[in-house]
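With this grant's support, we have settled on a layout for protein records. An illustrative entry appears below exactly as we store it:
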Amino acid sequence: MPKQNISPAEYPQAVLQQIERLGQHIAIARKRRGETQAQWARRLGVSQPTMARIERGDPSVAMASYVMCMWLVNPAMAVADVIAPQNDHAALEREVTRVRGSRKTVKDALHPGPSTATPVPSPSRSRPAAAVGLAALIQPRSAKAQR
């Protein structure tokens, strides 16, 4: 059976740096609270050596241990929100592009000839590209409704 997991040594350098930075932030949070690694380890249900590995940013430590540390620091922050569907701008833009393509195909079939498409606003620095794409997708409908 082929090996399914890659070794942490094979992770992209950027990923390893983010895990290390996470570990550093966990250590800072624990120290600012005046607590020991042993105290946090007990609260997490891990050994003190595992807590030390977390603080070093060891990528082989279970993700649940890192998430538990983040929860101990800030229970109100939802880690999963980082990649929630509404925050996945690349996927949103892809969906907008796909809808635009299918809308154009239908329009071309119904009205052959020069296109009279509403111009798409250029992306601004204040909004992500997906938000601009979604606004452009929605804009023609609202413009037609106002006429």
Summary: Residues 89-110 form the longest helix (22 residues). Confidence is low (pLDDT under 50) at residues 122-127, 137-147. Residues 69 and 88 are 25 Å apart (CA to CA).
